[in-house]
Specification:
This protein is an alpha/beta fold. About 45% of the residues lie in helices and about 10% in strands. It contains nine helices and six strands; from the N terminus they run H-H-E-H-H-E-H-E-H-E-H-H-E-E-H. The N and C termini lie close together (about 5 Å). The protein binds 3-methylbut-3-enyl trihydrogen diphosphate (2 copies) and magnesium ion (MG).
């Protein structure tokens, strides 16, 4: 496949800001379809709720609540597209540093989200997995998340991973400890530890690596999200704040992904 120019990628990005460009853009995206490959695993850092709230002179918790509306739509759209896995960053191990009021609002939203969505997600055959340390959460939230995992555990559709009290470094430390225990117990030799061994001790075990990482709000950093799994991910950074992010913006990010030339350290085959 011929590599598509960065200029074309920029045009796709430009579609989000130029009024009246939408129709033209959907034509361009259609043109991409035969060559665009869908990612197997999409990870999203849902960022910008605070700035959205400030912009609209609303409370931070109102911003987070608006963000859950986007969350619903993006999960639905991912399911409709037939993407295999979606990992969403909802609450990091560092987010405890926010005010008690904001943390409380986010914890309440977790309960509200599952109360309103679990029936539909289960009906749609979505399998939920929580990435992160559930034991470090308040009991109500822990039970709600465990119940969502249990109830959907045998579903075979979209793999929906929600990162709550998640940190990439903490995940790697947990994996290292588990592997060390196996070595200590004589069940594994140190020289037999491979990349697969490590993968098998991550929350995402059994899932493909992240193909596409999207972070909204224009920030360009990982903030401790899926450090190991993002090793060869393609990154797309839409400017839109998370509450303003639409399925069309998501389509554009997917189209950009389709234009990327993934080499994994090798070389493209001669045309
Ligand atoms: C992301 O939005 C949501 C969480 C971190 C839970 P932010 O609250 O980080 O939004 P900004 O970055 O302040 O705009
Ligand atoms: C990352 O966003 C965490 C989530 C989206 C849940 P943050 O807004 O917390 O990250 P920083 O502080 O900008 O790096
Ligand atoms: Mg933020």
């Amino acid at each position: 496949m011929a590599a598509i120019s960065h200029e074309f990628e920029n045009q796709i990005h430009a579609g989000k800001t130029e009024a009246g460009f939408g129709c033209y853009m959907s034509e361009r995206i259609k043109a991409l379809e035969p060559i665009a490959k869908l990612p197997r695993h999409v990870a999203i850092i849902m960022d910008g709720n605070g700035r959205w709230a400030r912009k609209h002179k609303l409370s931070i918790s109102r911003g987070h609540r608006q963000g859950t509306e986007t969350l619903r739509e993006i999960i639905r759209h991912t399911d409709d597209l037939g993407i295999q896995a979606l990992s969403l960053y909802a609450f990091s191990t560092e987010n405890w540093n926010r005010s008690a009021e904001e943390v409380g609002a986010l914890m309440q939203l977790i309960l509200d989200f599952f109360a309103s969505e679990i029936d539909e997600l289960d009906e749609k055959n979505v399998r939920i997995l929580i990435l992160g340390d559930k034991a470090g959460l308040p009991e109500k939230q822990r039970k709600t998340l465990e119940e969502a995992e249990r109830r959907t555990g045998k579903n075979t559709g979209l793999r929906l991973n929600i990162a709550v009290n998640y940190g990439g470094r903490a995940e790697l430390v947990k994996a290292a400890r588990e592997i060390a225990e196996l070595v200590k117990a004589g069940e594994l030799a140190a020289e037999d530890i491979t990349e697969e061994t490590l993968s098998d001790h991550l929350y995402t075990r059994g899932l493909p690596d992240v193909d596409l990482l999207i972070r909204t709000s224009g920030e360009m950093r990982l903030s401790n999200f899926l450090l190991y799994q993002n090793a060869y991910a393609e990154f797309v950074f839409p400017e839109k704040l998370w509450p303003d992010f639409t399925p069309e913006d998501y389509d554009r990010a997917l189209a950009v992904f389709g234009t990327r030339d993934r080499r994994f350290g090798g070389r493209e085959k001669e045309a």
